[in-house]
Structure to design on (61 residues):
């Protein structure tokens, strides 16, 4: 999750997580036990928002 390393990427994440559905989270991980229990469109939005900052912060990985 890019918001862990980059505060600007993490802005708005709490609102997105509220809409995500049943999950838990660590510092940089989302734990999802059942795919049917979450809103896939919200998960895709979270991933898309984090992709750019992660590539910027870790370009060689």
């Amino acid at each position: 999750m890019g918001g862990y390393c980059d505060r600007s990427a993490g802005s708005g994440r709490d609102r997105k997580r509220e809409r995500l559905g049943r999950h838990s989270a660590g510092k940089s991980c989302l734990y999802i036990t059942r795919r049917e229990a979450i809103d896939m469109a919200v998960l895709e939005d979270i991933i898309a928002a984090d992709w750019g900052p992660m590539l910027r912060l870790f370009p060689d990985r």
In short: Residues 2-57 form one domain. The chain is about 50% helix and 5% strand.
